[in-house]
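Lecture notes, continued. The same structure-token format from the folding unit now serves as the input rather than the output. Read the line below as a description of shape only.
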């Protein structure tokens, strides 16, 4: 399980290049959240969307008390639903969906 971000990953988060993060399991969601907290990046996550495969994953991604722009859950537990979720999330920003 990851315990830190790469320098490039840390910089991308801090500079706002990360608009969304996709999580397919509670385990990876918890690992990500723990690293964010341990590296003091909580404030930078407030503008990021968590795209979650299931409600269990959405619960896990906020387990460390992280506040996301929004935590969205796919309509089904497959990759197509996750892709649809991403399109829907960013389409709303552009007034498309």
């Amino acid at each position: 399980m990851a315990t830190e971000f790469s320098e490039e990953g840390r910089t991308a988060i801090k500079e706002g290049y990360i608009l969304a993060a996709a999580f397919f399991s509670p385990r990876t969601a918890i690992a990500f959240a723990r690293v964010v907290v341990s590296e003091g990046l909580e404030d930078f996550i407030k503008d990021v969307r968590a795209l979650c495969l299931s409600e269990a994953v959405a619960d896990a991604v906020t387990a460390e008390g992280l506040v996301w722009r929004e935590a969205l859950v796919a309509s089904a537990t497959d990759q197509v639903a996750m892709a649809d979720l991403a399109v829907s999330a960013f389409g709303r920003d552009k007034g498309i969906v």
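Point for the exam: Residues 7-94 form a domain with the Rossmann fold fold (CATH 3.40.50).
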